[in-house]
């Protein structure tokens, strides 16, 4: 029976293998995947953050993640060193290596080496037990293998001086686990099996079972989506901003939030804090009769909006971070439900969609909902409330600060931004701010983005928008900030084509997040969201930083266009005119011989087209965002393009967009179908055409073939019988003339002109219609045509090529 025993060296190799399987992928992820510090662009620099480039580089290099990675590699190196030491027992028996002699050494050299090793490891010279064992098992046997004939034969035949050895089966576990007097060995073995096998299997099983409870990229529980979609607290069609928190906190993530008894005192203090800032809740018993976990989440959210972070008990700080971490993800899911297409028109709801973004702004800047009015609340009061919210979002601002600013005739955020930089610190200090507050507000004002938008709706390939059309709304966006003019901003400016996000400046929110923009195409009259998109305007800011003059040009162009088309239809769809003009031109029998395309504006280029300057035109377009929606009912519609930031109040942009939708009639549909068929035929013909060189060579071959036929006919028939000779060749010429008429060749792919053809081809065309072409007289002024012999085989090959 084979004896099983442990092997410490094999166990070390086993551990090194498992450790390497974890360490190598993690290192690749850290080096090439990057951390969160490398995926964002910070568009602001505070005074305490103004450090040298070397210090910033060192801070990024020696961050927590890199230090952990360095420690893991040090541990891997130590384990590798241990493997190299313990793996000596696994080496095959080599007497020459043991005695330290070269292969082929003589007997005196072997005896001399043996005596030298005996002085070091013989029991009489070295009392160490390990030295005794090494001398007996290795040195003595190596000497015998090289000096004794029988031992040498065994070594040469079996690889060992003692002859065949028993099978040694080693287990990749420490040797001390297999000692008979070890009582802890079974427990240690059970622990290794449990930690190395059972625990990973249990973790994977638990993860697979719980992963079914979550849905979407945000990892929101499926029960939460069910509550948001159809329940008492679901998203409603006319839900305003003040009702959004009630739906938000009814998430399964907050319902399952534990509320241990140790938090009783902290919850009571949080209740008093909530009542102190929201006195109207005292008369709302339904607010306090909800589940304890939901009530705790709602009160923590209100305390954050009231900027009471320092007054929240320490036992609830972890729950506060959990609520603020989950809130943006839950609001994103609420947005998807609000803009979900609903019958009969297939559009989403505008009022809750805009209110959800306003809630995102409040959470980002810790702004009370009572100070933020919805965009739909028009009027002078709503405008004044929006101006108040813009000021209250600033760090270190409160109601008293705003009242003091009014004495300086500063009532809105725009007026505060217009204050001269030299006067701004004094103005803020007069409002009661200290130096730290002045610096924070100055940084905030420099970070506030300004978005510039241009919009245009079109149905590709059509002149007008018709019912049931799929309309494409093309938006061009630019983003500028006062911080773009700050010295040293070039080092951290966003680049075009970069995958990095822009980090929002949220000094009152302990959970950092990236800037995002919500782009809506809405119909206020119908409370409808026709299309929605959430984007990051990194490219728009990169263009705005490199070309700041474009923002002013866009504003001037918009003002000029509004003055010129004050009573007109601003957003009438523009045609993609290249194919349409071609069809209409040749449908009316018009043929041009100019080399251009016939469009004085340069083909299908729009009003902002760049002509031949493609690179410059692409830069001037900013970041392009396309919204696709189904055309509403026939009539004139006053739509709006709303661009809202999820991080700042007062940076939203709304532009009007008027469209005219014509009724869907049978005649109009048939006209579009005919145009589509004509385009399809044109594209099919253009795909079948050869290159210009091949087409020219083919026309030359046809011309030579015709001249050869005419020469043969002129040589075979006398001049008096020219008419009859021509009549005999009518059938062949008519076939080729029909090929010429149906060839659909063009002089220029750019102009789309039919080729004009030669005089002979014109005569052939006339002959195809029944008129006999006049052949030249035998003794005319022109040179006599020389007959050219063309074989029938070559003629057939040419016809096959033509086909």
Automatic annotation (TrEMBL):
InterPro entries named among the record's database cross-references: C2_domain_sf, DnaJ_domain, Ig_E-set, J_dom_sf, Sec63-dom
Residue intervals of the J domain: 94-159
Compartment annotation: Endoplasmic reticulum membrane
This protein's GO CC annotations: Sec62/Sec63 complex
Bias-annotated ranges (Basic and acidic residues): 591-602, 669-684
TM segment ranges: 9-29, 65-83, 187-209
Keyword entries, A-Z: Chaperone, Endoplasmic reticulum, Membrane, Protein transport, Transmembrane, Transmembrane helix, Transport
Record-level Gene Ontology MF annotations: protein transmembrane transporter activity
GO biological process: post-translational protein targeting to endoplasmic reticulum membrane; SRP-dependent cotranslational protein targeting to membrane
The species this protein was found in: Chlamydomonas reinhardtii
Membrane topology term: Multi-pass membrane protein
Protein name: J domain-containing protein
Main subcellular location of this protein, as a coarse class: endoplasmic reticulum
Bias (Acidic residues): 685-694, 729-764, 790-803
A Pfam family hit: Sec63
SUPFAM superfamilies: Chaperone J-domain (SSF46565), E set domains (SSF81296), Sec63 N-terminal domain-like (SSF158702)
Bias (Low complexity): 716-728, 765-777
Region Disordered: start-end pairs: 587-619, 668-803
């Amino acid at each position: 029976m084979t004896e099983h025993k442990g092997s410490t060296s094999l166990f070390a190799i086993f551990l090194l293998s498992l450790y390497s399987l974890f360490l190598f992928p993690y290192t690749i992820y850290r080096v090439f995947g990057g951390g969160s510090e490398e995926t964002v662009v910070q568009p602001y620099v505070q005074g305490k953050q103004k450090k040298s480039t070397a210090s910033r580089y060192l801070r990024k290099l020696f961050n927590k993640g890199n230090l952990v990675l360095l420690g893991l590699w040090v541990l891997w190196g130590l384990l590798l060193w241990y493997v190299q030491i313990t793996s000596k027992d696994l080496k095959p028996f080599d007497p020459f290596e043991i005695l330290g002699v070269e292969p082929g050494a003589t007997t005196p050299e072997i005896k001399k080496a043996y005596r030298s090793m005996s002085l070091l490891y013989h029991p009489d010279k070295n009392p160490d037990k390990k030295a005794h064992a090494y001398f007996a098992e290795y040195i003595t046997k190596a000497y015998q293998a090289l000096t004794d004939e029988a031992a040498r034969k065994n070594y040469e035949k079996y690889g060992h001086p003692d002859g065949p050895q028993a099978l040694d089966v080693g287990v990749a576990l420490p040797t001390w686990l297999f000692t008979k007097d070890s009582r802890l060995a079974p427990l240690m073995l059970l622990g290794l099996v449990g930690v190395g096998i059972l625990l990973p299997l249990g973790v994977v099983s638990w993860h697979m079972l719980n992963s079914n409870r979550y849905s979407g990229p945000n990892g929101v529980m499926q029960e939460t989506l069910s509550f948001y979609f159809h329940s008492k607290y679901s998203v409603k069609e006319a839900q305003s901003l003040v009702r959004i928190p009630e739906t938000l906190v009814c998430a399964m993530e907050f319902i399952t939030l534990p509320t241990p008894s140790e938090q009783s005192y902290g919850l009571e203090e949080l209740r008093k804090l909530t009542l102190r800032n929201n006195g109207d809740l005292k008369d709302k018993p339904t607010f306090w009769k909800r589940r304890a976990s939901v009530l705790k989440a709602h009160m923590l959210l209100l305390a954050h909006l009231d900027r009471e972070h320092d007054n929240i008990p320490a036992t609830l700080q972890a729950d506060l971070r959990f609520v603020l971490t989950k809130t943006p993800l839950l609001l994103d899911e609420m947005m998807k439900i609000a803009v979900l297409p609903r019958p009969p028109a297939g559009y989403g709801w505008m009022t809750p969609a805009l209110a959800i973004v306003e809630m995102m702004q409040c959470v980002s800047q810790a702004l009370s909902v009572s100070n933020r009015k919805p965009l739909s609340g028009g009027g002078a009061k709503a405008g004044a409330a929006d101006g108040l919210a813009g000021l209250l979002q600033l760090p270190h601002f409160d109601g008293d600060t705003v009242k003091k600013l009014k004495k300086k005739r500063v009532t809105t955020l725009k007026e505060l931004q217009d204050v001269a930089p030299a006067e701004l610190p004094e103005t803020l200090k007069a409002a009661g701010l200290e130096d730290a507050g002045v610096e924070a507000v100055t940084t905030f004002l420099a970070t506030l983005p300004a978005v510039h938008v241009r919009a245009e709706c079109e149905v590709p390939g059509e002149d007008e928008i018709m019912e049931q059309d799929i309309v494409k709304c093309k938006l061009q966006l630019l983003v500028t900030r006062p911080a773009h003019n700050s010295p040293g901003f070039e080092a951290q400016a966003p680049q075009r084509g970069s995958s990095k996000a822009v980090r929002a400046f949220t000094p009152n929110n302990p959970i950092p997040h990236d800037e995002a923009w919500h782009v809506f195409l809405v119909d206020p009259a119908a409370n409808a969201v026709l299309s929605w998109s959430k984007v990051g305007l990194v490219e728009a800011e990169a263009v705005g930083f490199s070309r700041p003059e474009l923002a002013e040009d866009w504003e001037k162009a918009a003002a000029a266009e509004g003055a010129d088309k004050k009573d007109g239809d601003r957003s009438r769809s523009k045609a993609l005119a290249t194919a349409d003009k071609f069809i209409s031109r040749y449908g009316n029998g018009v043929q041009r011989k100019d080399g251009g395309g016939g469009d004085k504006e340069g083909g299908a280029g729009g009003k902002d087209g760049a002509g031949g300057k493609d690179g410059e035109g692409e830069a001037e377009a900013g970041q392009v965002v396309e919204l696709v929606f189904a055309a509403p009912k026939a009539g004139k519609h006053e739509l709006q393009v709303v661009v809202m930031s999820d991080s700042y109040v007062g940076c939203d942009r709304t532009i009007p967009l008027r469209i005219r939708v014509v009724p869907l009639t049978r005649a109009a549909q048939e006209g579009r179908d005919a145009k589509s068929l004509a385009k399809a035929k044109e594209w099919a013909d253009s795909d079948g055409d050869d290159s210009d060189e091949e087409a020219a060579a083919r026309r030359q071959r046809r011309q030579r073939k015709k001249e050869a036929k005419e020469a043969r006919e002129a040589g075979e028939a006398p001049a008096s019988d020219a008419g009859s000779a021509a009549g005999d060749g009518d059938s062949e010429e008519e076939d080729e003339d029909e090929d010429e008429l149906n060839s659909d060749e063009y002089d220029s792919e750019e102009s789309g002109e039919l080729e004009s053809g030669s005089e002979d081809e014109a005569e052939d065309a006339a002959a195809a219609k029944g008129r006999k072409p006049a052949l030249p007289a035998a003794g005319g002024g022109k040179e006599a045509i020389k007959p050219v012999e063309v074989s029938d085989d070559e003629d057939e090959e040419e016809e096959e090529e033509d086909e």
